[in-house]
């Protein structure tokens, strides 16, 4: 079996540009939509977290643009954007864990879904009135935990990957990578 040659720096730069463009667009669309919906709903806290995520998406878009224009500092922007977005996600998850209001959440659930939820609770041998708040708090904990694990893997992995591409990206841009 023959070993394939290493990937050329120009090819690695193109991969970084492709991934950073897709990721920044995804973050901008999701956080922008979230910001708009939370403002329409009058949810100031969620609007704040959405605006912070939007700023992180803007940082990544800026880093992408700088790299595309030949600026090596764009890679730092890309890596920093991942850290910024991760901080926003952690802050949101901690806020949700500390300030979750099961009653307010339950009031936002549509009536047919509430009825179905209560039926399922009875089938499981639970009292819908007495056990609902505890069950909703547990579900909130699970959702926040999954969000943190996924964000740790995704934002951490992407930041790590960006940093691993540094030497190749600098070479593709015509700069010499600093010796470490």
Keywords for this structure?
single chain; 180 residues; mainly alpha; 7 helices; elongated
Task: Describe the protein in words.
This protein is mainly alpha-helical and 180 residues long. It has one domain (9-172). It has seven helices and no strands. The protein starts with 8 loop residues before the first helix and ends in an 8-residue tail after the last helix.
Total number of beta strands: 0
Let me know the largest β-sheet: none
Strand fraction equals under 5%
Q: Tell me, briefly, the overall form.
A: elongated
> Ranges with pLDDT <50 over ≥5 residues?
none
Helix % is over 70%
Q: What structural class should be given to the helix and strand makeup? A: mainly alpha
Report Rg.
Answer: 22 Å
In DSSP terms (H or I, runs of 4 or more residues), the helix count works out at 7
What is the secondary structure topology, with strand pairs?
Layout lengths: L8 H33 L2 H25 L5 H26 L2 H7 L2 H13 L4 H37 L1 H7 L8
Give a short summary of the structure:
By secondary structure, the chain is mainly α. The chain has helices at 9-41, 44-68, 74-99, 102-108, 111-123, 128-164, 166-172. It has one domain (9-172).
